[in-house]
Amino acid sequence: xxxxxxxxxxxxxxxxxxxxxxxxxxxxxxxxxxxxxxxxxxxxxxxxxxxxxxxxxxxxxxxxxxxxxxxxxxxxxxxxxxxxxxxxxxxxxxxxxxxxxxxxxxxxxxxxxxxxxxxxxxxxxxxxxxxxxxxxxxxxxxxxxxxxxxxxxxxxxxxxxxxxxxxxxxxxxxxxxxxxxxxxxxxxxxxxxxxxxxxxxxxxxxxxxxxxxxxxxxxxxx
Length: 222
Hints:
Oligomer: single chain
Radius of gyration: 17 Å
Order of helices and strands: EHHHHHEHEHHEHEEH
CATH topology of the largest domain: Rossmann fold
Number of domains: 2
């Protein structure tokens, strides 16, 4: 990708910047009900149901997590307790950034306004923004947009609030399914995929690949 000077650099937060560990949280809670051999496919199903849950009408993220876990438990014949979803949400609030994030963000923040578009709640994201180690210009949550990614509405809301078009931003994410495929469909041409091993590559979606946020300054010619 040729060096591009965006008006804003927009980011996915969880997974891309914050070390998102739903699988670890679920594994800790369900270790007494799910065997070690079954835990990886169990948590993989939990991830798939979370994606399915965000495709409909907006609801609080705690409900997304609980409903996804209820469906996962039903599939596996595992008892679900109300405390399970609450425990996972409590774990969410404790997570911090990937080790590469603070320095990488601080470098690009000197030249560009940084914006978050996150599938978070207003009160939940407040735990994480201060841990990123760089000034964040704006934060847009699913609660504000009343829509979760990968739906387009959140991106549309963000662009409207920023007063810019798809051609004016560089969007950075570790997820093709939640972010970069939607960006492609919306005509957001300038995209960076942070390959954290969450999903397989698909270069047809037209992104620049980096291994971590430390590679982002180079993409921007910094």
